[in-house]
Specification:
Blueprint (H helix, E strand, L loop, with lengths): L3 E13 L2 E6 L16 E8 L2 E8 L9 E6 L5 H8 L6 E5 L14 E7 L3 H13 L3 E8 L8 H10 L4 E7 L8 E2 L4 H11 L7 E6 L1 H13 L7 E5 L16 E8 L2 E8 L4 H7 L17 E6 L2 E3 L7 H5 L2 E3 L3 E3 L3 E5 L4
Helix pairs in contact: 4-5
Length: 346
């Protein structure tokens, strides 16, 4: 179960006008807790204006560096992101959970990777790139932003291109600036095909990693598959809650007796089927794990061992994982008179 540790901030760097990177001091006795795989994230817990806020942020440093570093970009009405980019300073402390997440890359020096990232979606991908290059693999990055000044980690990426000219291919796409040696537009079907069918028509990519808004991920995934990449070799992570434009999700109006297994303890209570399982557990003062509460991360993952549930949204779990009983409890509603969910068995 997620355990939070009080970490002090080692350094805050202003990366763009509205984004900062934050690195943490990791005490020697916690170094094993904060080992991670490239692509994973940490959850930060902070009380702001009397309200506890939890947010997940991907790690942009590499496992080999021994450093835990994240990037935070301010978003409209973002409670923590605005706080982090305007008020947080070196030496402050935050409650931080150990790394987790399923959007990961363990480098293989015989593989040729490609990634498509937009905006702050570069954060986990940067960790993957550096780890891959450090281990002798090849990497191609297509990185979309509005303008050059909006481009998080541009200097670091350019330096990597200079350091690894034979192993690292770097391409920028800007939607609001026409820049020499960069494409104008967005990461859309036409531009993805431009790279796959022209520049890299003689290349075979082992795996693809996508991080950005839902529309971009859907478009790139479809285009990669149309260019003969197997779906199981395409990995993605959303950096915001997906927008659901479908008809309103129909939820039953009944009640369910739910048993929650958490930290080797069982708690049974009655909940409304209209309420997400995570919310019901939190209302019972259970310390259930969570972060985004929007179905984007996997912090609230649990397994159904009795009964059934349906999820409003799911952009993370595969069909086989759902068949095994895994659910995102922030999106799951029980549909049977009784249900048992186990947070420990994931």
């Amino acid at each position: 179960m997620a355990q939070f540790h009080n970490l002090t901030i080692k350094e805050i760097i202003k990366e763009t006008n509205d984004a900062v990177s934050i690195s943490f001091n990791i005490p020697n006795d916690l170094k094993s807790e904060f080992q991670f795989i490239a692509g994973q994230y940490i959850t930060i817990k902070k009380k702001i204006a009397g309200k506890e806020v939890r947010r997940a942020y991907s790690i942009c440093s590499t496992p080999e560096s021994g450093e835990v570093k994240i990037a935070v970009k301010a978003v409209d009405n973002g409670i923590f992101s605005v706080f982090a980019t305007t008020l947080l300073k070196n030496g402050d402390s935050l409650e931080v959970s150990k790394p987790e997440g399923r959007f990961t890359l363990t480098p293989n020096n015989s593989k040729n990777y490609i990634a498509f990232a937009a905006g702050s979606g570069i954060t986990p991908v940067l960790s993957m790139i550096k780890s891959s290059l450090n281990n002798g693999a090849s990497f191609t990055l297509i990185y979309g932003n509005k303008t050059v000044t909006d481009t998080i980690f541009k200097s670091e990426l350019d330096n990597l291109k200079e350091k690894y000219p034979n192993n690292f291919n770097l391409h920028y796409i800007y939607s609001r600036e026409d820049i020499e040696n960069a494409l104008f537009g967005r990461i859309d079907t036409a531009n993805v095909n431009y790279f796959l069918k022209n520049i890299y028509k003689n290349s075979v990519f082992s795996e693809a990693f996508l991080c950005g808004p839902e529309k971009m991920i859907e478009t790139v995934t479809e285009t990669l598959i149309n260019n003969n990449m197997q779906k199981e070799n395409i990995h993605f992570e959303l950096f915001s809650t997906p927008v659901d434009n479908s008809e309103k999700f129909e939820i039953a109006a009944g009640n369910t007796e739910i048993t929650v297994v958490l930290d080797d303890e069982e708690t049974t209570f009655v909940m409304s089927q209209k309420q997400p399982i995570l919310n019901a557990a939190l209302d019972e003062d259970l310390d259930a794990p969570y972060s985004c509460q929007g179905g984007v991360c996997s912090s609230c993952l649990a397994r159904i061992t009795e009964g059934k549930a349906i999820m409003e949204k799911n952009s993370i779990l595969t069909d086989s994982e759902i068949e095994e009983g895994l659910i995102l409890t922030c999106q799951a509603h029980p549909t049977t008179p009784k249900i048992t969910i186990d947070y420990d068995d994931v």
